Amino acid sequence: MLCLRPTRTTSRRARHICFSTWTLQKLPLTIDKPVPHDAEIARAQVPKPIATLAAEVGIDAASELKLYGPHKAKISLSLMDRWKDKPNGKYVVVGGVTPTPLGEGKTTCTMGLVQALGAHLGTNSFACVRQPSQGPIFGLKGGAAGGGYAQAIPMDEFNMHLTGDIHAVTAATNLLAAAIDARVFHEGNLTDKTLFQRLVASRHHKDAASFTPAMHRRLRKCGIVADDPQTLTPDEQRCFARLDVDPSTISVKRVVDTNDRFLREITIGQGAAEKGKTRGTGFDITVASEVMAILALASDLHDLKARLARMVVAFSQAGVPLTVDDFGLTGALTALMKDALEPTLMQTLEGTPVFVHGGPFANIAHGNSSIVADRMALKLVGRNGVVVTESGFGADMGVEKFCNIKCRASGLRPDCVVVVATIRALKLHGGAPPVVAGKPAPPEYTTEQLELVTLGCANLAKQIQNAKAFGIPVVVAISPFPTDSDAELALVRDHALRAGALDAVVARYHAQGGQGTVALAEAVLRACDLPARHFQLLYKDSAPIEAKATAVATQMYGATDVAFSQSAQTQLDKLTAVGFGGLPICIAKTQYSLSHDPRAKNVPPPFTLPIENIRLNAGAGFVTLFAGDISTMPGLPTRPSFMDIDVDDDGQITGLS
Amino acid sequence: MLCLRPTRTTSRRARHICFSTWTLQKLPLTIDKPVPHDAEIARAQVPKPIATLAAEVGIDAASELKLYGPHKAKISLSLMDRWKDKPNGKYVVVGGVTPTPLGEGKTTCTMGLVQALGAHLGTNSFACVRQPSQGPIFGLKGGAAGGGYAQAIPMDEFNMHLTGDIHAVTAATNLLAAAIDARVFHEGNLTDKTLFQRLVASRHHKDAASFTPAMHRRLRKCGIVADDPQTLTPDEQRCFARLDVDPSTISVKRVVDTNDRFLREITIGQGAAEKGKTRGTGFDITVASEVMAILALASDLHDLKARLARMVVAFSQAGVPLTVDDFGLTGALTALMKDALEPTLMQTLEGTPVFVHGGPFANIAHGNSSIVADRMALKLVGRNGVVVTESGFGADMGVEKFCNIKCRASGLRPDCVVVVATIRALKLHGGAPPVVAGKPAPPEYTTEQLELVTLGCANLAKQIQNAKAFGIPVVVAISPFPTDSDAELALVRDHALRAGALDAVVARYHAQGGQGTVALAEAVLRACDLPARHFQLLYKDSAPIEAKATAVATQMYGATDVAFSQSAQTQLDKLTAVGFGGLPICIAKTQYSLSHDPRAKNVPPPFTLPIENIRLNAGAGFVTLFAGDISTMPGLPTRPSFMDIDVDDDGQITGLS
């Protein structure tokens, strides 16, 4: 039971594997045909107490486990101190071909893969996935815990508030936004002297005026050395107290975790008490906020605080970058976010462990789950274990950002990329009519179409090459629908191997869970056992932003070059001038094409990638380049999925899938 | 240890008391002088595991306890099924005199009282308090877990996200608001037929078009009997599908749990994709939402769902009230709120139990913690135990709404009202200069001023009479500051007894915790042991709204009469016409005066209460009458308390008090 994993290792190594392999209480699956709705499958399975799972994988109940009800737990970052000298396991990232609007099922593949590894091959394995936004859950997409027999459970808790991390991001971002506008308002109403006096007054009126630690940092920024507020000259008081925000440069938008199109563009401050200080702005969905990107990229509490502190939220009238720390908000935002930095432990349908943590948008941000969760999982699985983490959208976006942003920040190196492909997506790329959520698929998708599949395999080949560009071996997971023919599936495998994939395996995780994913898992293990290759990022920190953009656009998207609009170039020059040119880039573009044009399927003909706009994310640590108009606030459709959701008399949520 | 409580009961009853008295592991307090900052006191105390406390008070660990980390737990409502035949304990509500802007410390009194009862008198006792909004915590007020040696701990968890209930209210309210605007948008773009077809289409495209349960209820509202969408006539399709919202009647505002003055009045829908459908609206702070009031008033999950369903969120162009259920949101909002309906268990500094649950605004809503928590606590303490619950603002508002709204809904009857008074407040009412948060108190407040105190006791007398108007015995808690003189304190006691208080006791909970509150606790026990008196509400359900307003205004505030503005009268007539005249009322007025004028201190001369505006809260089950302009969105001051908040290297939050 403990040593089932087939290996070609020495017996000494094998003993080590046996020694460190978890004894997991597996949850047996009863497989029905046809596959029932996701919610039915999830509800039919009784999860084990999360405390049991935590103990099984080596988490200390007394010091590292914080239960959130019986089936979720936050894991303390102190675990990393205890395990810091332990070797990491293998690191697998799941990407995909360019997706259809229905998605390729990467979360489902991730769950199926760890179910196969953990419940069928006796290999320690952890899935690391993002927490889903409530916006799409109540909008068009529904639940996001995987699908079929490859899911995280309980799926209702996965899809609702989880342990509150996204709510914490909402609270932190909105406090920040409110504080900026309030500061502009108060600075506009007060003399330098009054402003200064109010800022340094103690809230405990018995105490004398004093500087907080953040105020001391602000003093240093102004070049002032002082401990006593009474000693500052009027000029020093002014420099310290007056941030002098240029309202047109405020880059923080307020957020809600709701699809609310009417908040995309709004005017605020129209109350009489706000004295005419109106301003045009908008709300983003919470997961599009920089605070969310920071949560996913921070390595520990200290780093979280440092990243929050250095977020540039506006510029002064003189063009000086103004940070969270200048507004005195570093501590408060850290207080709001500190619990959110602990990953949430859940389980798959077969009782193997899952971390759900972080959920940054996959175009304007880097679309990968958290570094903290991956690192912790890599320690927990141990040297011969496997961590499977998921990246958003196609490999040109998710895997690229996984490597160039997430691995650059973490220093971790992936051992294998899994590229998920469906016949449906390849047919779309081959020229079949569009597929639309909520509408029946055109007949091309339910009949054998070898020519369409062959044509569409060009997209798969390109995405395989994209992953290989980083020096990582690629395994293709072919996820079949019941109507896909054997000939279609064989064709995809053939094309994948010719494009340089180490292997390509039909993986029936949706229909059969881990049992249907054993062959894929074995292929992944073989890839991980290859001698380490030279992992390479696409560009160096020191390269100019323009060169970074060209590297990604030409090597990943197949563009010939990049064109910055005049406005984007001006913004870029400004950012570079104030010292942010050394950051990696995050290109925001449509997920539906390798290019910036969602209509250009498959491998588009040579094109120039236009960069229209730029956003500095100094705290997250990247510069977002907008290739076209990217919505950061979805809308609700006429018939939203919330209409299916109900709570029955037993208090169970129904209709989530 | 078990039978310390002094009683004059028979020995048989005494045995029963002994039998059902909890064995609490108390947390000894080390009292320092002068009283350290709240955060220092809270941090010096090590809380016991909340699972230990839960077991001590009779909560079943396996089925009723949901841990949220080691020091907080949600308690399942299934406890009420198990304990439904057990008798209730005594029910004590804490109110106060008309407060100063610094507050009278009602939460502190509540904590001190249960600490005295539970840790010093051996009486089972539970505190029930509201969850504080993050807005004031980061704005002006700071932490809200009590103060000095009478606090709920851990105070940082109390003041941050707790178990996410307020975030759930935010999510539910914002989904509702987004859904209303989106529905107006889509109805405006689609023909009746397309609108109908889209609404009844299944999200699983394999399935046929069908009606959801909420759609069946909508059909009934239209007088249509049908199971198959294909059978509806065009007129029936139109009635079913077209809500025909009059945008000017939309009463749901979006919410954030942040002090954000720039969101008070805004214009939404200004993006090009929204096709000119702009609308003036605003954000409220989350705790001002009707969903929060519903959370606090719902008796169980079934009632929560029913209340959410019947919330009137707008009127149609034809003047028909449109509910949450018409928008198909009943189930989704219930799914978002179901965990929030479970109260959160915490503990006092001395290890006695506290429920933190619900947090409705105390003027536009009823300002009392939840019915669910009070009911559960009344069962847990048992027949001879005491539940102390807190009501917002002065007794004219908090106690009045406690009785007329909360007890009307719950059917519970209070056994005693505690009216908290400070010399500071009485001096203010007696004519001393204003006290301002963050500024040193004028000298009147730190020197003996018998005349000012005597004059201000008129306010105390009126608030005692207000509580007695409901037929409940009153005990006055005099909360001393170090500078208050013995003569001042004696004066207050004298006035209180003359005004009809059963007792008036100097209670040193802030300086000494439970030990300093024993005399108050004994007085409260004596009040609770009095033969039950006739508890009476101020008005019947069947009285017209105008008569209800007159009853409250004349009997509680000392007004001579009530004047409805023309606009308010029109709104009232409309509400009455569509059947909402039988609801109780909730008068929204300033907390700083018995009248509607915050400058009118003490007992204002006879006045007419003006009602300017009316808001229907059909789900919460009351009609709010606005006596003047009541802000539902606070602002951040120039020097907000967030500037003091930090997280230290151990991950501890500092600066919360």
Automatic annotation (TrEMBL), chains A, B:
<dbReference type="InterPro" id="IPR020628">
    <property type="entry name" value="Formate_THF_ligase_CS"/>
</dbReference>
<keyword id="KW-0547">Nucleotide-binding</keyword>
<dbReference type="InterPro" id="IPR027417">
    <property type="entry name" value="P-loop_NTPase"/>
</dbReference>
<dbReference type="Pfam" id="PF01268">
    <property type="entry name" value="FTHFS"/>
</dbReference>
<dbReference type="GO" id="GO:0004329">
    <property type="term" value="F:formate-tetrahydrofolate ligase activity"/>
</dbReference>
<keyword id="KW-0436">Ligase</keyword>
<dbReference type="GO" id="GO:0005524">
    <property type="term" value="F:ATP binding"/>
</dbReference>
<dbReference type="GO" id="GO:0035999">
    <property type="term" value="P:tetrahydrofolate interconversion"/>
</dbReference>
<dbReference type="InterPro" id="IPR000559">
    <property type="entry name" value="Formate_THF_ligase"/>
</dbReference>
<comment type="pathway">
    <text>One-carbon metabolism; tetrahydrofolate interconversion.</text>
</comment>
<keyword id="KW-0067">ATP-binding</keyword>
<protein>
    <recommendedName>
        <fullName>formate--tetrahydrofolate ligase</fullName>
        <ecNumber>6.3.4.3</ecNumber>
    </recommendedName>
</protein>
<keyword id="KW-0554">One-carbon metabolism</keyword>
